[in-house]
Amino acid sequence: MVDFAIVLNAGSSSLKFSLYKRMDTGTWGLEARGQIDGIGTSPRFTASDGAGNGLADDRLDGHVDARGALDALAAWLRSRYQGSSVVGVGHRVVHGGARYPRPTIVTPEVLEDLRQLVPLAPLHQPYNLAAIDAVIERLPGVPQVACFDTSFHRGQPAVAEVVPLPRELCRGGVQRYGFHGLSYEYIASVLPTAAPEIARGRVIVAHLGSGASLCAMNDGKSVDSTLGFTALDGLCMGTRPGSIDPGVILYLFQGLGLSASEVETVLYKKSGLLGVSGISNDMRVLLGSSAPGARLAVDYFVYRAAKEIGALAAVLGGIDGLVFTAGIGENSTEIRKRICEASAWLGIELDEAANDRHGPRISRSGSRVSAWMIPTNEELIIARHTGVLLGLLQTRV
Ligand code: ADP
Predict the structure, then answer these.
(1) What is the whole-number distance in angstroms between the Cα of residue 207 and the centre of ligand 1?
(2) Which of 46, 51, 137, 240 is deepest in the core (most CB within 10 A)?
(3) Catalytic residue flag (residue 24)
């Protein structure tokens, strides 16, 4: 019988997966990876094999929700890999809170703890945990590992974790956690080969996707990041505002009389690029539009990123490199160009031709601070942790 390990990254509008197969040598090889995206609007299932050859590209029924996406993936896996055994499942879980500074094997107690964190990450945590529940139902007894977006940031200096409210209010775990840690951990792991001259230095990584943040790294370790207690802080995001004056939130309650759940919806689903533009949360749509709202939203996205890069450069005492990753960071030459130009004062000189070719190095050879585009791979980091925690030996990649 062939052994497989599965990695799941379940979100509200997409379900990403990777499938690893135990080879005769005892190592693990990537067998397939893919995603169901457009969940809730126009779901589409795509998958490719370890070499990148297409295995599936199907439109799914428009009514497929997050649960339906897991069912569709299970059906595809069953039909394609019938008779195989699943020896472990690794999950992306956005929030590990103060209790889980490292990836952990899922037990009923762990799951209960993680459910308590749903209000701190309402856009992600429920979907991450629903995927764990679905595996418990379908594959009872198969060990599961939760890998947290908060873990990579643990070990930051105390000042970077402070939320400066009265101590008694912070006792229940009110501190800055930071997110996108699986992505940053991947980037840190490949810097020594992808960008050796900056790997031991002071680096800002810009994870720019629907969610967006920056991480300040020194010698591959996180020293600060722009996301905090929740994934609402810092940069302007697709539907989240990033940092705003907390007085605005008070005004939403006291001045406009909004309820807590209405404010939550405003902050998580209606703000950021969507709120400012009034058009879309998708950077591609905004870059292709000449509407004033779209232009302002893109201008604000770049402005905010450049401003926070300056702040993290101060934290690091200067920088040696800037790395772009995630959907916008990997694909948008325009946004990378504009952020690099706005950060030219730091010593970044963009190489436009290299930027148009998507790098990996996108700065000129003489540039005092180098800039890079490195695609992220959160699933690979989850696979590694899952392999180690479940004793599945080296997960080959
Ligand atoms: P997440 O995993 O947080 O859902 P991704 O990292 O996949 O997000 O990034 C998704 C975003 O990337 C999309 O919302 C879109 O705005 C942006 N994006 C993808 N391709 C491009 C592109 N070619 N130009 C600009 N933005 C892009």
Answers:
(1) 10
(2) 240
(3) no
